[in-house]
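Consider the tokenized backbone below.
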């Protein structure tokens, strides 16, 4: 079988994967966003997941092309769906992007073709929600005319160590033979190989618990931070001491945002309830982690009150708005919760982030950010994201004589800060 690959969705997951596949197979990256496609074909990825050099090589070698035209993926036979799986305002899974991508696949898929889903979902979505759409649009029969697989994405935005080619991938297929084909395609481009799951549902479940486990573990650390802060004990000191034991899992408290850990658990939470199981631990973890932005803001207010700083109309500087350090990704960032809670006291809040796209932040959150460090003095400075640039800031130049520096990430020297999470 001569493989020609189409990757549907060219975001943080789809683009690195498509670029990697193009090193071995003719690959077409498909996205409905013409601006995104134009940007990529000009050799630049604004997410910074693929370097200009790698992207340029892929395009110039004529093995990789990006398009918004369905005709450009009609002759492909291995379709990979890598679209977002968000939640709505009520934290219910929003499958519309997946349904739309499945319709796209249904318009072009042919007899003998394979479609592999990478989007994070609860067990059963691929076969119960997505493939019926492909069947309806194509008129073909699943597991008779076309086949399917699932290989959950494991992209970590901004991580230059665990890049897509170095990630060990879980694979699966709708028949044993298809599972072997899917596994072989992925294995051919991955340094550390694959783990072939026995079924699509097992592969789906494996992905959802990866992030749910981290969510629960971080929630525990956040709860400890609240306890120790109330007791006047430095949480980081406690963690360092406990980490001296060989089997202690060293995690830190913090804001839990982004497209994975703060979203994926809701998919399993909803599905569990369909089966009559109330996932109390996962519920509690989500509730606790979702409230950490508000908690940080109130801790800052508490510190200001202790130092006699009037919070009303105070000047506050927030360093960082992306959901993680050294990365432009602003999806579901919890820094906005800090901003909104503090805005109940003052509107003199500046947000500085050299990594974030100011237009996207304005569009997504209605917050105007600065991409250069302001030449002003502030009553409170909050390090919300641990960008490398922030570690070299001269805090004496931005803080007023009587002021507070609060370190959410625990990366600043003790002699600079007044408190940390």
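A designed sequence for it:
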């Amino acid at each position: 079988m001569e493989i020609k690959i189409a990757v549907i969705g060219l975001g943080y997951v789809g683009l690195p994967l498509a670029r990697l596949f193009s090193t071995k197979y003719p690959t077409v990256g498909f996205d409905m966003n013409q601006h995104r496609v134009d940007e990529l074909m000009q050799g630049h990825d604004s997410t910074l997941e693929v370097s200009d050099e790698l992207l340029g090589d892929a395009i110039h070698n004529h093995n990789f092309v990006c398009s918004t035209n369905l005709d450009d993926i009609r002759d492909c036979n291995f379709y990979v769906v890598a679209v977002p799986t968000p939640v709505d305002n009520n934290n219910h899974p929003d499958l519309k992007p997946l349904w739309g991508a499945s319709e796209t696949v249904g318009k072009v898929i042919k007899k003998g073709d394979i479609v592999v889903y990478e989007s994070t979902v609860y067990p059963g979505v691929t076969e119960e929600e997505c493939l019926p759409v492909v069947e309806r649009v194509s008129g073909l029969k699943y597991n008779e005319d076309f086949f399917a697989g699932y290989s959950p994405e494991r992209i970590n935005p901004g991580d230059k160590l665990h890049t897509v080619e170095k990630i060990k991938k879980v694979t699966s297929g709708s028949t044993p033979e298809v599972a072997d084909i899917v596994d072989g395609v992925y294995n051919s481009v991955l340094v550390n190989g694959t783990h072939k799951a026995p079924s699509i549902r097992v592969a789906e479940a494996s992905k959802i618990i990866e992030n749910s486990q981290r969510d629960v573990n971080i929630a525990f650390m956040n709860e400890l931070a609240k306890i120790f802060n109330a007791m006047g004990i430095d949480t980081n000191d406690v963690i360092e001491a406990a980490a001296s034991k060989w089997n202690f899992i060293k995690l830190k408290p913090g804001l839990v945002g982004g497209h994975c850990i703060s979203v994926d658990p809701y998919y399993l939470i909803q599905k569990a309830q369909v089966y009559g199981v109330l996932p109390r631990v996962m519920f509690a973890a989500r509730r606790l982690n979702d409230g950490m932005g508000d908690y940080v803001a109130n801790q800052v207010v508490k510190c200001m009150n202790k130092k006699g700083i009037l919070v009303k109309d105070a000047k506050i500087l927030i360093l960082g708005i992306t959901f993680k350090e050294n990365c432009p990704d602003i999806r579901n960032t919890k820094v906005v919760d800090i901003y909104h809670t503090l805005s109940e006291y003052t509107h003199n809040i500046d947000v500085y982030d050299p990594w974030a796209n100011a237009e996207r932040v304005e569009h997504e959150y209605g917050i105007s950010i600065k991409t250069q460090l302001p030449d002003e003095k502030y009553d409170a400075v909050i390090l919300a994201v641990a960008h490398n640039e922030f570690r070299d800031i001269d805090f004496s130049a931005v803080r007023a004589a009587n002021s507070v520096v609060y370190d959410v990430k625990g990366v600043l020297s003790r002699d600079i800060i007044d408190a940390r999470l």
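DSSP finds 14 helices and 13 strands in the chain.
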